What we know:
This protein is of the alpha+beta class. It has three helices and four strands; from the N terminus they run H-E-E-E-E-H-H. It has a four-stranded antiparallel sheet with strand order 1-4-3-2. Belongs to the SecB family.
Amino acid sequence: MTDAKQDEQNREFALQRIYTKDISFETPNTPAVFQQEWKPETGVNLNTEVNKLSDTAYEVTLSVTVTTKVGDNTAYLVEVKQAGIFSIAGFPDQEMGPLLGAYCPNQLFPFVREAISDIVMKGSFPQLVLQPVNFDMLYAQHQQELAKKAQAESEAQH
């Protein structure tokens, strides 16, 4: 058996636990916003954070903030931090970044989507369905931004 195949067989990826770290829901302009014509403008902000717990355990937190406005008034603001503990072993270093920065958040996203949809409806607003997110693309963009920033800093020092 080749070393590459042996390495692949020694790989471990397991989702140990998924949990909600934080939920916040604000409706600063109720009940007045209910009397306005419902033409919402919604903005979504995503962020991920990785915390190494041990040599093989990582906590990945996906934070999603949704702000919906009607005209100049904020109808609601939802913030959800969904986390998971992932057991990861046997992967080469170059694969760890995409695993932790794209694959793990992708596993957490359905839980965030459900939590946000549920809390928005409980606030007496129309259902909000977050569209799928391409975490691979977001991770690649983030890596490009980091590379550009590092290059700019390097050029500034010379």
